[in-house]
Amino acid sequence: MSVPSTEIESHAKSIKVAIVGAGSVGVTTAYALLLSHLAAEIVLIDIDKNRALGEVMDLSHAAHFAHAKVSVGEYEDCAGATAVIITAGVNQKPGQTRMDLVKTNYGLFEQIVPQIAKHAPNTILIVATNPCDVLTKAAYELSGFPVQRVIGSGTAMDTTRFRHELGKHYGVNPRNVHAVIVGEHGDSQLPVWSLASIAGMRLEDYCKQKGIAYDEEAMDALSKRTREAAYEIIQRKGKTNYGVASVLVSILEPIITNADQLVTVSRVGDYAGVEGVALSMPCKLNSKGAHQDVELLLNEKEKEALRRSATSIKECFDAVAKKE
């Protein structure tokens, strides 16, 4: 998340953001958003209104320093929201994959998304609930919104973790590492090694210039740590919340400020010959939503891995939506 600026604060004066789901991710996102100075009004919606009220009371004490209004709301309070973030759903438990959550959370989306679409027909939907890609496609179909206005947090978190791992390995700030994870936010995610770079050089070239060996085994290991990071965190503390909340705010910022920023997020499209599937690719984010202007230049091995990832997501969606 970038440091609040005068430009951000001027945008914030007219910005309302609604968050559906007052669990750990939803509340941590509300707190991160509050401190970002990106919004003037934050609405928290949850079936457990007493819990939501308690969270809002607590957040309101932080709002004293951030100068934003925080309130408990109903779906009609989504009206006028620049964005509605959906974090509601059952949480991933130790030993579960994100795909294990699909039936319960798809059913929940059938109740939630039409209500949001009814009361906020011009909003941008941001989906954080897992399995993120399947539910991004569900939100797209259930809302009837244009494709660019339904965005999944997707591999934005995985990309952040990947850059962190690469930065730690090479001893550079992760912000100076240019590398992305694409495809599923899950087990079939794809690190794009062919395009990963530091200081404008592909990793192998960077290693040659620095006089060090390019360690393929180390790269495979850090890719595995990236893919399994959430599982390890859940095993240790029962949930993930801080990282994903920060990523959700980083997705919101270019939407609110109309920044045309490239972020790896999930969006419905045609990928590697698989039609009508949601998965993550670098997208340009602005006030109109998420836009895929340029196809990522993958090598043949990566294209095949992306096809497998896309097929896996599509099969899961078709099964739960009874489209087989």
Explain how this protein is built.
The chain has 324 residues and is α/β, with parallel strands linked by helices. Helices cover 46% and strands 19% of the residues. It has a 6-stranded parallel β-sheet with strand order 3-2-1-4-5-6, sandwiched between helices. The N and C termini lie far apart (41 Å). The model has no long low-confidence stretch (mean pLDDT 93).
Proportion of strand residues: 15-25%
Helical content (DSSP H or I, runs of 4+): 40-55%
N→C terminal distance? 41 Å
Q: Which structural class should the secondary elements be placed in?
A: alpha/beta
Shape: globular
- Which residues form runs of ≥5 with pLDDT under 50? none
Strand order of the largest sheet: 3-2-1-4-5-6
Q: What order do the SSEs take from the amino end to the carboxyl end, as H and E?
A: HEHEHEEHEHEHEEEEEHHHEEEH
Tally the helices: what do you get? 10
The radius of gyration computed from the alpha-carbon positions, rounded to a whole number of angstroms, is 19 Å
Give the overall average pLDDT.
93
Major sheet characteristics:
6 strands, parallel
